[in-house]
Structures are given as C-alpha cells and as structure tokens.
Amino acid sequence: MHNNENPFASEDITPAFNDEWVAKRRVADALKQLTEVLVTSSPDIEQMHSIAERLEATAASFRASPRLFGRSRWAASGEHGSFAQISHELNPLSGWSNPIAPPLNSWIDGDRAYGVCQCNWAYEGPPGSVHGGMIAAIFDQFLGMAQRMGGQPGMTGYLNVNYHNRTPLNTELKLEGMLTKVEGRKTILRGEMYANDVMTASCEGLFVQPKGGIDAL
C-alpha cells in the first residue's frame, strides 16, 4: 500500500503527489537519458553544437517559468505536497524528479532499512565501476533515512566507508541498514551495499540531532 506522507513505508515507489510531479518526473527521466547519452557517445562536433543550441533555448524557456528555490519554499506554498513528498521528488540522491539522482529507493521494514539503486555510466569512477564518492553519497542518504528507526532525525556527523570490492555500474545495488545505538542526540547506524550478492562496501554513520531539533536550523 502506498503512503504518500511517508515515502519510506514500503519498497513500492510512492506515486507522484499530483500531475505537476508526474510531468516533472518525465522531464527528469529525459534529462537522465540525455546525460548518459552524452557521456557514452561521440557524435559529429557540429551536431553537438546544434544539440547544445536547442538545449540552451529550452533552458532559457524553462528559466522564465515561476521558480521556487529550496524545498522549504516549495512546501510553504501549499500547492506541491508536504515537505516529505517534495523531498521524495527533489532530493539529489533519491528524488524521482531530480535528474542527478540514480535514484535510490529506500524503505524501513521492522528493525531494518533496505534500499535499491542502479548507477549508469554517468557515475563511473574506476573503469566499469561506480565512483567511490557516489557510493559515500548513497550511504549518506540511505543511513540518513534509516535513522528514522532511532526516532530523532539529525545531520551527518561522520561517515566511515569501507570499500571491499568494486561496485559495478548498470547493476542493481542492494543496501541494508541497521540501528547500532542512540546516545543522547547521537544516532549511530551501519550500512552494507551488495551487488550480485557480493558486499562491495560498508559504512558506519553518525547522525547528530541539532539542539532544538532538526527544524531549529
């Protein structure tokens, strides 16, 4: 069952809040396709200049539309869904309407957090492998979501990532997270990443709730 107020309640991809996000997800997917084509193709130089001119015109047209800077402003308008729903669309790692997101789909089931994502050629580091910085970013987002199990949302204090094997591109990556302990305003979690049932990376993350709560910032 879908839960639009909590995108992390199940592994089902939460449906878009309204038709605006349906359209924005489509644009994001097109941009994602374009990005992968860009880094994997070598067309004629003049053709690329022609493509660039059309994209520049599209960007200029897009730029003239009403704009909201920051998810808080999107939520404050009251027209685009709750802050959680907007984050589910615009987050740079898990946003379905953000073209730079793989995206990561994550959820909590009992005392475990789970996630899946797939990184294409745009995220290549070592040959045929996901960039290590991208792996750290995925862990940051995943464990940041998993800290819901501790009941006190906070900001990243540290991430200790261990790289055990190469993480292949264009392969489903599975993540599992567990709560280690909650101590005062601190929440510590462990995460693991697998490709084809082989652990490629693991991580310990510390998240600290700001004094006065996350909304006090």
TrEMBL record:
It holds the Pfam family 4HBT. It is a peripheral membrane protein. Keywords: Apoptosis, Cell membrane, Cell projection, Cytoplasm, Fatty acid metabolism, Hydrolase, Lipid metabolism, Membrane, Transit peptide. SUPFAM superfamilies: Thioesterase/thiol ester dehydrase-isomerase. It is found in: Cell projection, Ruffle membrane; Cytoplasm; Membrane. It comes from the Bacteria. Residues 128-200 form the Thioesterase domain. GO terms for molecular function: thiolester hydrolase activity. Its main location: membrane. It is an enzyme of class 3 (hydrolase). One of its GO terms (cellular component) is cytoplasm. GO terms for biological process: fatty acid metabolic process. This is Acyl-coenzyme A thioesterase THEM4. It comes from marine gamma proteobacterium HTCC2143.
